[in-house]
Amino acid sequence: MNVTVFGATGAIGSLIVAALLDRGDHVTAYVRNPAKVPASWADRVRVVVGEMNDAARIDDAVAGSDAVISALGPSMDRHAVGLPLVGGTAHTVAAMHAHGVARFIGHGTPSIVDTRDKPTAQSRLTGLMGRMLLPRAYQELLGMSRHIMDSDLEWTIIRFTAPKDGPAKGINRAGFYGTDRIGFAVTRADIAAFTVAQLTDTTYLRAAPAISN
Predict the structure, then answer these.
(1) Where do the structural domains in the chain lie, given as residue ranges?
(2) Mean of the pLDDT values across residues 86-111?
(3) Deepest in the core among 1, 49, 164, 171, taking most CB within 10 A?
């Protein structure tokens, strides 16, 4: 499978790329800083360098792909300005439509609401903290997700609360708030594995499952 990965050099994105390569997939990585590209990728990964406002470069990265994975997340820097990932997501959706790419898998937090959710203290707390402490990042996350969820793409947005480093433990809880018991902690390795698995698993098609260990 040909897969384009946005946020490919990040903590979770790099694990996704590694998992895809282990599966034998062909990977295109869209990166903003080429200095972060691991030497181990060498000739194994097609790298496209560009900003999230560069529609032409995003189009180039998506062309020829069977699916798009986005491990992008808003900057937590309180001095950050603008909503670059919202515009970048719009460019990504446009490129996918232009090239007939239907499958999109992305990441989010409980601030994103799935229609199958029922309000819980956990989801309410996460939304409140986002709105109060990091309002710019909160708005960017919602804007990114809305572009995807309002589209006709075959999307899945994977929600998690407290990612951490460490070896994979397995996703023991997955589903929707208020219906399924979802915890807080989840390893980045498990997020990456669950993300890659969605390429061939249609259980959560056009849904935003929450996951935890």
Answers:
(1) 2-212
(2) 97
(3) 171
